[in-house]
Amino acid sequence: MGFHGGNWYSFIRYDEEQDRPEVSADLLKRVAQYARPYWKSVVIMLITILGISLLSLIPPLIIRDLIDNAIPNKDPSRINILALAMITVPLVNGLLGVAQRYLSSKIGEGLIYDLRKGLYIHLQKMSLRFFTHTQVGELMSRLNNDVVGAQRAITGTVVTLVSNSISLVATFIIMLSLEWRLTLIGVAILPLFVIPARRVGRVLRGLARESMESNARMNALMNETLNISGALLSKIFGRQKTDEERFTVDAAQVRDVGVRQAVVGRWFFLALSLVGALGTAVVFWLGGHFVLQDIFTIGTIVAFSAYLRDLYGPLMAMTNARVEFATSMVSFERVFEVLDLPHDIKDTRDAIAIKDLKGHVRFENVSFSYTDKKPLGLEEIRRFSWRGGMIAPRKKTESKEKANSDNLRSTKREKRWAVEEVSFEIAAGEIAALVGPSGAGKTTITYLLPRLYDPTHGRILLDGYDLRDLRLDALSSYIGMVTQETYLFHDTLLNNMLYAKSDASQEEIEAACRAANIHDFIAGLSEGYETVVGERGYRLSGGEKQRVAIARVILKDPKVLILDEATSHLDSESESLIQEAMKVVMQGRTSLVIAHRLSTIVHADRILVMDHGKVVEQGRHEELLAAQGLYARLFETQFKSLVMPS
């Protein structure tokens, strides 16, 4: 948002009305917890700051002694000592400054590391529901911009506050000892520093949040349109011009907010400079008369003017530091907002790991709905739509009738089950085929078994244990999954394979690839297993990517296997190779397969027929055909026309 008219007062009033964070005691305590591991470095840094501040007070006294004593008394040895002191003081001060800079950067970079690590670990534990409702650009903004902004508050603003506080106190004491009347006059204008600082602090804090939101919106757009899928979609639909216009708007908002921040800051410093000039002029005027009246010496007024500069300079910096601290708290608040998001899927206190897993799977009256009345992803904070507008949380000021209406609609949505009262059993080592029309709930079943989501009602058992009683890391090791949309990292084929088993030997990797019918293809590449597959594996064909995914799950060697056997978009050769690989990977494992081929269905130990989220039939191929139900109709319309491989 920008201002195309109006006056300065309305500008400030507008910004004051915007949502802004409260720098509360709880927030400060939480920030202090992150600085606690570095308390030794903090103490040493404070000592260096104290030394720098005290040494900075010596030069005016040297000048005073030079003017009032050394020169009038024509004392060359005293002049030599004072000249040497003028060199020694800044040298020692500079060395202390280097030490202070090293310590502050050590603390700051450590803080960035801790915050980023905490955020990354927290986000890694978020459920799949969170990632389906959150844009990547928003997460990147929290991990990068906001973390750096939070670090700036500790290493920049806090250091400035501490060092200038020490300088102010020490300078004030020396000024009182030199001339208490001039000191009181110099201090009398301090309220004129505080008034603009409070007003501008509120304005800049609001602008800081607006800047962060604008950057998050721009980052979200870049992440969605500059990855391989987004770029492909943009080119297919000829939307480059539209995307350019959207980016131009978002980038312009970032620019405009930056300009507003700069202008407000300059107005602020202009006001402070005028106040400082006023105080200096008054002190010089009165001090000049004191010198004429022989109340104190010329050296004293020179030293006093230097100390006055040392009083107003840190005071202006402290005033600005207060503003920066308030705006930096926005960064901490945004980081903590993410860290405070609850984990939908997490280990219970007594979660266990099964040592000798057999692979017996049982669903007991399982129901699940993707609809949730709770805010999802980052929408309870700030979220941005694909078209660039902000999706804000529902305002608390809405009418009671509207809230009740929304609750009724939410209840209705909650009853739109993706799966409803599903019960079935798969014995260890069996192959179960999931069949049914599109939208029947097959994919949801495959998401519930590895606990990507938890059932809304009912429970899922693995070897008699409720999935919620098993450790998530153990459950992940038990279950392997190959989805229809294969994802590969922008890395080498070798590293993509090692993602399944980081300590796998080259022989193990090649054996898995042979089982997946992909080794010969890889060996024929100029760089072999060191070939980089490109963003999301786009340098490989669909069949090649799927065989790499199958090889990866073979290398993992899970007890329970989940497969989306989608091969309809592949050529016959790739399809045949994948089918052979499927047979190998399913041997000796409990397998749950979304079946698209008649061969898989016919040879399955159990066929689960789904419709509208329910298992309407289950049994073997011949039994279901004889029942003349939905399976028989699907067989006649879809599967019968498929050619079974010999």
Structure write-up:
Residues 1-21 and 380-414 have low confidence and may be disordered. The protein contains 23 helices and twelve strands. The strands form three sheets. A six-stranded mixed beta sheet has the order 8-9-10-5-11-12, sandwiched between helices. The protein has a four-stranded antiparallel beta sheet with strand order 4-1-6-7, covered by helices on one side. It is an alpha/beta fold. It has two domains: 24-339, ABC transporter transmembrane region fold (Up-down Bundle), CATH 1.20.1560; 419-639, Rossmann fold (3-Layer(aba) Sandwich).
Keywords:
Rossmann fold, 646 residues, 6-stranded mixed sheet, alpha/beta, 23 helices, 12 strands
Short description:
The protein has 646 residues and is α/β, with parallel strands linked by helices.
